[in-house]
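re: ur msg from earlier - yeah i can do the pyridoxal-5'-phosphate complex, just paste it... oh wait u already did. ok heres what im feeding in:
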Amino acid sequence: MNFETKCLHAGYTPKNGESRVVPISQTTTFRYDSTEEIGKLFDLEAAGYFYTRLANPTTDAVEQKIAALEGGVGALCTSSGQSAIFFALLNIVESGDHIISSSAIYGGAFNLLGHTFKKLGVDVTFVDQTLPLSELTKEVRPNTRAIFAETIANPALLVLDIDKFAALAKEADVPLIIDNTFATPYFCRPIEHGADIVVHSTTKYLDGHAVQTGGVIVDSGKFNWQNGKFPQLSEPDVTYHGLVYTDVFGEAAYITKARVQLMRDIGATPSPQNSFLLNLGIETLAVRMDRHYENALAVAHYLEKQPLVKKIMFPGLPSDPNYALAQKYLPNGLSGVISFEVGDDRETAGKWLDALKLVSLEVHVADIRTCALHPATSTHRQLSEKELVEAGISPGLIRLSCGIESVDDIIADLEQAFRTLEG
Ligand SMILES: *Cc1c(COP(=O)(O)O)cnc(C)c1O
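and the outut:
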């Protein structure tokens, strides 16, 4: 099946007379005929559903679909993007270990790694992802256990040189974990470039309609966990009578452990209703992404010509420093997100945003409706002017997420807002 077809048909094949659309199994539990059968499920000797915290048919269908789209051997849905990143790392790191992460990552992920993981005894080194491989490898330590980065960084819109990061991970002999939220598997499949694990906030483009919060982890099945660095996977788990994940589950060892151990113990489970909505969103992913990109490119070209726009970050523009990387890893398109500066103070940017009518002010991206955000007065409100500059957020910075409306209507709205600034 080609990508567009998988969006509709992967993960669920109804049998004769069954529901055409993935049904919502709105149930916490499942009935069995014998204690023996339930015992086998608990010992992981048989596959089946027994409690929705661990697995549910609706969620299972969407997991299989996402695994097919990213080219992985399995996937695990979580209740948010944050919990997907947390589980993806916690599955293989513990107190005393070390992670290397790009510093150009989502603010929530930055806090999770830099503060929460630190509290758990896991050290994190944030690196400038544009440094050459020879510089990056200097950060590898004997206790390094994972490399983390985003395909298209939110909100800086840097494009990752995935080959370079895959080489760094190879050098360290640890997995490369990529947050592919902004690119989506339609525009980039990091596993094809050497990533071992892919995560998403499904809250964004995979859902696309701003109706559910969720996350997903996809396992490529390609990493060799038996290299002596991952005893969690290659040595007995006492909580399953000494089962060894790599022996019993082979290439699906990582994703199986994340489910049967972390989801069992921590339980960031998506609701079946949300999995249904997520699946519905993914069905149209391919057509939506083409339109998001097409609109964003036209808006970026329009913004480039505006005298009040000081700087624009959109790797689809040939003038963008990330254009060459975008051409290499995302030849067919990018997300609908553009970052740009209107004026050079909070007031000018704020006035422009307040004048928008069709485009709404929201703390969100990747919705089918165009929305905008002013980091200096919202997500980064508490920072001083100096701290804002250090964080790469100028007072006039605006993050615009282009939706799939008529691009003429989007541009007309931006245009009338510029006119109000002319006074
Ligand atoms: C939004 C986002 C997250 C966090 O996801 P939630 O679903 O909000 O928890 C993580 N990574 C990226 C790139 C995001 O845009």
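cool cool. The chain has two domains: 3-281, 287-422. ping me if u need the other ligands too
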